[in-house]
Amino acid sequence: MRLARGALALLLAAFAAPLAAEDRAGEPTLRVEVSHSGDDWRATFTFPEGAKDWAFVRSNRARDLDASWRLASWKVLTPGVELVREGERDVLRATGDTMPDSVTVAFEPFSQDLFADYDPAMVFSDGTVALFTGHFLAKPWDGEAGFAASQEPAAEFAFENGSGDLTYKGRAFSSVTTRDSDTYVIFGSPDFVATEHFTGLLDPAIPSWMLGELGSFLPQALDGLNERLGSPALGGKPMVIATWAGPTPGRISRGGSVLPGIVTLRFEGDGMLEKLPDEIQPVRWFLSHETAHFWLGQTVRHPDQTAAWISEGGASLLAYRLIQSIDPAYEPGFDVAREWKDCIELSAKGPLDEADSRRDYRASYACGTVLGMIAEGAAQQNGSRDFFDFWRSLIEENRRDRGGDGIVSVSDWLAQLTRESKDPDLAARVRRFIHDGSAEPQADLCAMLARVGRRAPGCTA
Description:
With 461 residues, the chain is of the alpha+beta class. The protein has helices at residues 5-11, 69-73, 208-229, 277-292, 308-326, 333-347, 362-381, 387-398, 410-421, 424-435, 441-450, and strands at residues 2-3, 29-37, 40-46, 53-56, 74-76, 81-86, 89-94, 102-107, 121-123, 129-132, 138-140, 154-161, 166-168, 171-173, 175-178, 184-187, 192-194, 199-202, 239-244, 253-259, 262-268.
């Protein structure tokens, strides 16, 4: 059903955050004012004194460009300032001795996929645009020394839409100011879809069969995850924002990410126009993986990117098992074999906890799935438990709303493995694989699987 904007405001009130910046008198503050009028998009940065150069905290490359997306879509309008790429950082650099107090940039909303980061913009076929706040966050930059932590200011982001309304955390405004660098602000007056299980902002151009999966399979997935993992610590009903990037020839693309209380989905390619049998399960896996992050990533999270395999691989294996529980005819053997193959190939490059620095982002998914299979095997030998039970124990022990710190560390994960397997040496072997790497990853992984009664392709009996 469709919701009026007033009804939506009440529905999503639990997600609302303070809309005015907190009073921090005397504290240096970076203020970013983002405005839209017609086809004109601008961001004005007002800098506190003391730093000549400012680098953007989130500077991951665009996937198709393999280069800076800001340099491709931003233009500095203020004289005496340039936007440059320094290593893996986008930097606003003063060409003179000092940075002007205020710097204005004209930009086009960039909606292409990034490596391991949120889309800067989500652009809908009806003209709605959602901008990610965190891509406007910058900090003082010392070049080779990196960020100048001692000079780090607070930051606030102000958004104004001269061409219509704004939606922030489910509420409609004419303008909004926030310190939240982990959310989207929506420009426009779109229709929101509400179901018992989620609230959606769904691009009407998404192929109809995909909209059907969003409406039918997604509620089943959320029901299953709630039943097996407990209630997520969201504070309200989850929100799904889904866009259609168009029928790009020769492409089938599904991308997604998770923010507090929000899953974003991005579909693209002429291969997704028709409902093909080979596409149904990959789409279901994608929806299951992303929604699993309400638990593995939000209710609890991994400590840093070196341990991304905990959440990414965990969500992947949970997704395979969730689909099996909903559709018993589904057999994930081929998909799991691909994870195994990718993990072995990527492990030959170095330790798992260095994969992110090597830009081997796929390793967190593939090897995280394989390590999850080891944990699953241990749980199955421990009173016929399964991977959901393994993760529910970790969630219950560490969730912040039950007194934990909200983090599942490598040590936490390995301790749970030992509790399931009663085999401390197995956890020690997994730890070495994560931190030290392996000269023979297939042999080592096969040996670890064998200790829990499991095998994978290429493992001897």
